[in-house]
Fold this protein.
Amino acid sequence: MNDPVATPIVSVVIPAYNGASLIGETLASLGEQTLTAWEALVVDDCSSDDTRDLVRNWPDPRVRLIENAVNGGPVNTRNRGFAEARGRYLAGLDQDDLCRPERLARQVAYLNANPDVALVGTQTEQLLGGRVLPMNYAPHTTPDLIAWLSWIENPLAWSTVMVRADAARRLDPFTRPEILYAEDFDLYHRIVAFGRIARLDEPLVIYRQHDGGVSKRFTTMMRASAARVLAEAHAPLLGDDAGEVARLLAEHNMGGVPIPDGATLRRLGQAIARLQGAFVQRHGPDVQSLKLIRWETARRWRQLARVALRSGRVTLGDVLASRPPHLGLGYAGVEDILRWRAIGLVRRMYRREGGVPAQP
């Protein structure tokens, strides 16, 4: 029998920086994988805690420590790990996230069965306050839905991703350092030159929510980088409007920031409708995928309307006037709409009177 360390099917790349308190649980979750032919490359980016010693002394020989001589940042650190990986498939994993036992096996089986797919992710759960909870990703997907969602947001959590090594090595660099904190989103747009993107709908990764996580600490830079990715992607279709539409998508659809006024709501609604029309015309999704695309876009419109109405900065008339034609009220009930409007009216009144309303 071949030694799985010598001939790994999957190389799991884990950039590490001061992760000693959490990375042990991450590595332990790899040790429970039903697919055993993996290697884990932990690339330490000059940690000042005990991360290097913990990984160096990890009892599983499939775990390998790579040490940066100087701090290179998360993107360069990840790229170094992928450059040294030996597996046929490359899997992403952050130092604080956890894999379900079937994760690697299920993704390898999917890629083996679908040669047209270059990258596959999985559904994700989150660990928050000691509880494992669902996340707000689409519950059911097809490759066409994932492709559409990538036009308006990041559809996959990085720690769920597995990519074919031969496709990854055709990218130079693998992830672009200048797209910091949205380099995964950028990768999804670049990798489609070599194959489709898919997602397994079973939650096979647990994303750990904590104050030290990158998404909590670098929100502004993450949104700016995501907007750059979308602006580059949509420039051929939207021309000079691509940058502003990308900014609105990154700030409001991806970031959840309340839309400030009715004019902005109308502009974003029109842009989403135009993008979706162009996507459907270009890709010709099948009936099931088109239904999912319509449904998931409606869910997002509902959330945009909800946050905007509850903020008190837009009116119900703004929402009704700006909705894309096929979305109705975003599948929200009348009771929902009236409740959001009532909350918004209270907040508007407090602002006029100089008060600060409590968050309901």
In short: The radius of gyration is 22 Å. The chain has a mean pLDDT of 90. The chain is about 45% helix and 15% strand.
